[in-house]
Amino acid sequence: MSALDSTQHDSTNIRGFYAYTDTLKGVFYGPGSVNTALPKLLDTLNGTKALIVTGKSLHDKTDVVKKVENVLRERGAYGTTFWEIGEHAPVAGIRKCIQALKECGADIVVSVGGGSPVDAAKAVIYFLQKDSGGSFLPHVAIPTTLSAAEYTIGAGYTEDNGHKVAVSDQRLAPAGIILDAELTLATPERLWLSTGMRAMDHAVENLYRPLVIPPMKVLCYQALADLFKYLPLSKADPSNLVYRQKLQVASWMSLWPVKFEKYSALGISHALGHKLGARYHIPHGITSCLTLAPTVALKAETASQEDKEWLAGALFHLRQPSTGSVEGDVLQLSKIIDKLVVDLGLKSTLAQYKVPREDLPDIAERAMDGRSDPTFPKVVQLLEGIYE
């Protein structure tokens, strides 16, 4: 069967609902776009004083934050910069950030960096609103990785006990997003490429995520095609802004902003990543490198026929020949994802991150909200398979 013969993978699910998120006013993209987009968003959102939320490394080791500060200063809208946001957004940093915002009197939040600053900014806005009972402050996200946290209505952060928790509200979606490839040049290679695999995790798991509409799944197919193409190219030529901008747009397509009528979780790979990340200090991009390919292989065995067909359909968009069966095509997708992880130099194991082997059943249990799910033993086996 040729790659063009995809009739057996046609989906029959033609019922659903779609709406934009309530708050998003615009996504601006292109190299250098921060210089023009940020002033436009300040005008649109009536922002007069901004708090920048970022991480220590980006603040101390690059000029990225200074560039954003300068744009705000030129508009007379710079308040202060809070740069104590750690990996997985520890709640202690969020508390300090709330105090910094109150002290400077900011009326708009600008996050700069990866998923942790973006999620921390959303958490700050959430807790401020809960305390005051007022409106949600507007948030402009300027991502420097490919993790795609800026497209969601949720904020994940880490409690003092090391457990990752989340809050969500439609009004937490950023009001503006700026995808400026120039600001990603300072992002370390491993972080850039691994968060690209995080975007791939979004694109793949959206193919079987409940309530995702077919047009969004087609965007995920294109996201997969671009991630497979441009991640190796970006690794080979890290200063190429075209490749970086293509990858930022692919990240956007992988988690297209959408208003769900009710909450819809992504899937096993993400659930495992959330439980592994904060507790064992594994970056979220790396958790996707660990869990995505084996999760797809598991889906070849356990998914519904509809979900298998959506996964199998990815091969057509990746210019890969069909194996002749839906299950075979899903397994083939798993194999080429794993090969990409290897080719990008991102292959690792749970043992390398010092995850105790005896913790694996507990990780699976927390990821699946208990052991009653019939696939629980298979998820434990999945973790065993990536242990060493």
Automatic annotation (TrEMBL):
It comes from the Eukaryota. Keywords: Oxidoreductase. GO terms for cellular component: mitochondrion. It holds the Pfam family Fe-ADH. PANTHER family: ALCOHOL DEHYDROGENASE, ALCOHOL DEHYDROGENASE IRON-TYPE_GLYCEROL DEHYDROGENASE GLDA DOMAIN-CONTAINING PROTEIN. The keyword Oxidoreductase applies. Residues 27-180 form the Alcohol dehydrogenase iron-type/glycerol dehydrogenase GldA domain. InterPro entries: ADH_Fe/GldA (IPR001670), ADH_Fe_C (IPR056798), ADH_Fe_CS (IPR018211), Alcohol_dehydrogenase_Fe (IPR039697). Residues 194-377 form the Fe-containing alcohol dehydrogenase-like C-terminal domain. Gene3D superfamilies: 3.40.50.1970, Dehydroquinate synthase-like - alpha domain. This is Iron-containing alcohol dehydrogenase. GO terms for molecular function: alcohol dehydrogenase (NAD+) activity; metal ion binding.
